Automatic annotation (TrEMBL):
The keyword Metal-binding does not apply. Residues 1-16 form the signal peptide. It holds the Pfam family Peripla_BP_2. SUPFAM superfamilies: Helical backbone' metal receptor. It comes from the Bacteria. Residues 37-286 form the Fe/B12 periplasmic-binding domain. This is Fe3+-hydroxamate ABC transporter periplasmic binding protein. It comes from Alcanivorax dieselolei (strain DSM 16502 / CGMCC 1.3690 / MCCC 1A00001 / B-5). One of its GO terms (biological process) is cellular response to iron ion. InterPro entries: ABC_Transporter_SBP, ABC_transptr_periplasmic_BD, Vit_B12_bind_prot. Keywords: Signal.
Amino acid sequence: MVSTVLIALLPLAAIAAPRCVEDDVGREVCLEQPAQRIVALSPGAVELLFSAGAGEQVVGAVSFSDEPPAARKVPRVGSYKRLDLEAILALKPDLVIAWRSGNPAAQIEQLERLGLTVYYSEPVRFAMIGGTLERFARLAGTGPVGKPVAEQFRAGIKALRERHDDAKPVTVFYQVWEEPLMTVNDQHLISEAIRLCGGVNVFGGLPALTPRIGREAVLGADPEVIIAGGMGEDNPAWLDPWREFGSLTAVRRDNLFFVPPSTLQRPTPRMLEGTRRLCKHLEQARARR
């Protein structure tokens, strides 16, 4: 009789056991039960949570959290650079997903002092995107949804890497912002996408993650390809000023390409789509030599 009772209680014990994961700063984050009220403090984290099957549990988001479309209906709690702490507290979240390098550190620390559970998210490599999906799914109790999405992303990245493993190098300038003119160095996730496609970031050696540069520096580097994001998902206007510089190799060969910014500038599964586009553009550049 005793053994039967113990066996019957095992599933309940498993459900009641704390679910613990390690966040991207190496801290253990534990919840007694799946998170039901999640506040996400970056557009990328919002998208990752929806991809992990936890969209219905997201009760607060920051401005520009626009993917998937359902995320646009989530109440706002300020911008990622300036959080509305009162709005966050009013939502009574059982989990807050913070952006380590993007959110104001003092505000996040204040949320922790007030007793909120904070997970610091900072996926800086393709491998970390899949892992983040799985950890979010564990915290939210949506593993059956999140795990297949993570596996599909890993498989897609692996296939792209194998396809372009022997591709001839192409020098690339990636424009992440127009005014001030900004790019990325080799430590940035975007540069991993560039390398995967056989590209060489002409500003990869700069010390800052997202360095500010001048147009003279781009002219001096003379990249074979210029890739730009933009102010919107279908607005390639940032490429137009470069057409004035006919001496640039990228201009002479018509290698000015646009990639929708949210597909490369957010660490989400849609980076697979953005990287595919990037690889296609570099293949076009090789064909125009």
